[in-house]
Amino acid sequence: MKVLIPSALRSYTERADAEASGDTLAEALADLDRHYPGIRFRMIDEQQRIRPHIRFFVDGVQARDLAQPLSAAGELVIVQALSGG
């Protein structure tokens, strides 16, 4: 599946998009981490929860669970909230 990478995580991928495979969001993120070591930890915490500043959208719908099913032809968009004042 196509994965759109936010600019804050492009230091791992060196590009705006990547490919990942897996039947669930968790599997796709693990696959991304195999190709780009360390990227998963920036999105998923030690308790295996999505970090508060990260949002995942699967085919345009927000995924709130790592068990979210994926399709190989789908698209995963990773959004990272920015803060500041």
TrEMBL record:
It comes from Zoogloea oleivorans. InterPro entries: Beta-grasp_dom_sf, Mopterin_synth/thiamin_S_b, Sulfur_Carrier/Prot_Modifier, ThiS/MoaD-like. It holds the Pfam family ThiS. This is MoaD/ThiS family protein.
